[in-house]
Fold this protein.
Amino acid sequence: IDLAKAAEEFCLKLIHETSEHACAFKPNAAFFEALGSKGIEALERVLDEVPRDIPIIYDCKRGDISTTAQAYAEAAYKVHNCDSVTLHPYMGWDSIEPFLKDESRGVFIL
């Protein structure tokens, strides 16, 4: 079984069947990342399929030192083009500040 393909097909079906009613989509990064490069590619295709008028909450639960947080913010917002992310603030302000620079993006602090 190609788990990356199965995850992608499941998510695409979910998007297609619920977009009319959805207020947001929240893919969990860990499930795709655990599948390696094929999982990341599947995640990209899933994110691309979300209609642009529906926000994407990137469920990645990031929270790392400032330079790493900056890289994670760039990945979430510039590479994945997500509208918001989930974060945990345990490492302090530096761990969330890079995600707050763009006022058009949102954060959910756990």
